[in-house]
Amino acid sequence: MKTKIVATLGPASSSKELIREMVKAGTDVFRINFSHGSYEQHAQNIESIHCVNKELKTHIPVLADLQGPKIRIGQVKNNRIFLTKGNEIDITTEELTGDEKKISINYESFAKDVNPGEDVLLDDGKMLLKVLSTDKVNLVKARIEQGGVLSSKKGVNLPNTSLSLPSLTEKDLKDVEFIVNQRVQWIGLSFVRSATDLIELRHRIAQYHVNQKPWIMAKIEKPEALDDIDNIIKEADGLMVARGDLGVEIPLQQVPLIQKQLIKKCLQESKPIIVATQMMEGMMTNIRPTRAEVNDVANSVMDGADALMLSGETSVGEYPVQVVETMQKIISHVESFEDIYYKHNIPRHREERFISDSILYAACEMAHQVQAKAIAAMTHSGYSAIKVSSQRPKASIYVFTNNHGLLSTLNLVWGVKGFYYDKFISTDHTIEDIKYRLCKEGHVAEGDLIINIASTPIEEQGQTNMLKLGRVC
To answer: What pTM was estimated for this model as a whole?
Structure first.
């Protein structure tokens, strides 16, 4: 299976036994949501993943997902109030227990930022308020355009408002310090608005002296991010199409095309991309997905996503193992469709790494022409692996590196399977050694064609400058 599965850990899946079963079922990445849980729980989950990796000889990475500047209402009376369409309601930044006439919000600059006529969406857009007036201090008056039952701590979206919130909250900064000291491979930055947000997070991470710094996944869930998307892709190590908040912040009908456009851009720029939110939501309480969910998963695979993410389905759902198994079956079947392979991203002449990019491109083109079984790449930074993956070859991608941490990081990337390798005697010796190992472990068989890409002299671990086609014998 080439498309990877990201599973979110939570109360339904936090035991070591369930983590092991989810890996066996097909999980490639575990997401830990820092909107919930304690550091003690997170550390225990991360340690369980490390133990399972050691036991099963896998390289499952952790994606630590920062909460970001999530706006929520406060407590409401009896944890349940009803907002009636047509009524007016006050929203204050002062802490109080809300009722049908007045509710609180945790965003201190709310009254300063909003303007009359702007929308306030509650509980993932289930309820809609229209701003009537604001005192620009702490009180906003609004009319209920779409009512419903509202419980405590529900999320708030402000699709028309320019927010003055920082991209990293005080909680996020504490979480970043915890994350970088926990051997975590990926860190998700929520509510990215511009490339500057990513630069700030990278600067924060650089302050910590750890051997393996996490790669940054930019979560696209704000309309402002779409305006700066090319710069965001350039600064990020990967993207996530977070369709939940994105589908509330922009018109719903725009989300499918934006998903396809973002996947296409990431393929062109060789950046891994995750499609997330409600992929198999029906399996939170049912043993089978809906037909629409099966189509959603299949279409995301055909679009070329690197990974598909399960959220509540595995964190709080009733069937965390079965939902992974079901998604794996859908992915495997769709990957038998020939048209999903070979994207033909031709290298650009003016690129800094034009020579190595051209060799990596040629390796994938050759693999297609001769129907090679595998492409084996040597890498220290992960660049070659991601570049080859972005071409979406049908040949298996095997990556060999002496960088232990990189093996787990790359496990999120489409089609990549990593191996630890630290012998650098000569290029010819390394190529033969890699062939022997792949054959011995059953990844290739005698007579298969295999393409090796590496740098020479190999001991310098420089940029890729060599390609060799050979037969396993």
So the answer is: 0.93
Catalytic residues: 31, 72, 219, 277
Q: The CATH number of 77-157 is which of 3.30.450.20, 3.40.50.1110, 3.30.420.10, 2.40.33.10?
A: 2.40.33.10
Q: Do 310 and 22 form a contact (C-beta atoms < 8 A)?
A: no
Q: What is each CA distance from 82 to 89, 122, 137, in whole angstroms?
A: 11, 12, 26
d(CA 119, CA 142): 9
Query: 4-68+166-335 falls under which CATH superfamily?
Result: Phosphoenolpyruvate-binding domains (3.20.20.60)
Domain coordinates in residue numbering, the chain: 4-68+166-335, 77-157, 354-471
Name residue, tokens 């079963």.
21
pLDDT (tens digit per residue) in 1-54: 999 999 999 999 999 999 999 999 999 999 999 999 999 999 999 999 999 999
